[in-house]
Amino acid sequence: EYLPMGGSVKMVEETLKLAYGENSEFIKDKKIAAVQALSGTGACRLFADFQKRFKPDSQIYIPVPTWA
Q1: Do residues 12 and 36 lie in contact, with contact meaning Cβ atoms separated by under 8 Å?
Q2: What is the mean predicted confidence (pLDDT) over 14-42?
Q3: What HEC string does the chain produce?
Q4: What span, in angstroms and rounded, lies between the C-alpha atoms of 45 and 47?
Q5: Residue 14 contacts residue 20 (beta carbons within 8 Å)
Q6: Domains contained in the chain, number
Q7: What is the pLDDT of residue 68?
Q8: Where are the transmembrane segments (predicted)?
Q9: Closest Cα to residue 42, out of 1, 2, 6?
Q10: 7: buried, middle or exposed (CB in 10 Å: 19+, 13-18, 0-12)?
Q11: Domain span at 38
Q12: 20 to 30 Å CA-CA from 59: which of 20, 44, 49, 52?
């Protein structure tokens, strides 16, 4: 069975707690949005699409190699 488009809700919630802290005001105030991406490449593409839509004149910098 496939996950929904946004990924595993529980995994995303726990990842936010890990990154921002269990008692983060940003999480409590719902000021953070997150989704689960399929892979590193998928995450880069997802963010690039997001950035293009909301900040079309900005640039994205991705190192070479991106990961090894």
Answers
A1: yes
A2: 92
A3: CCCCCCCCHHHHHHHHHHHHCCCCHHHHCCCCCCCCCCCHHHHHHHHHHHHHHHCCCCCCCCCCCCCC
A4: 5
A5: no
A6: 1
A7: 60
A8: none
A9: 6
A10: middle
A11: 1-67
A12: 20
Mean pLDDT of the chain: 90
Burial of 25-58, coded b for 16+ CB within 10 Å and e otherwise, reads eebeeeeeebebeeeeeeeeeeeeeeeeeeeeee
pLDDT score of 21: 96
Q: Are 38 and 45 in contact (CB under 8 A)?
A: no
Tell me how far the alpha carbon of residue 21 is from its chain's centroid.
16
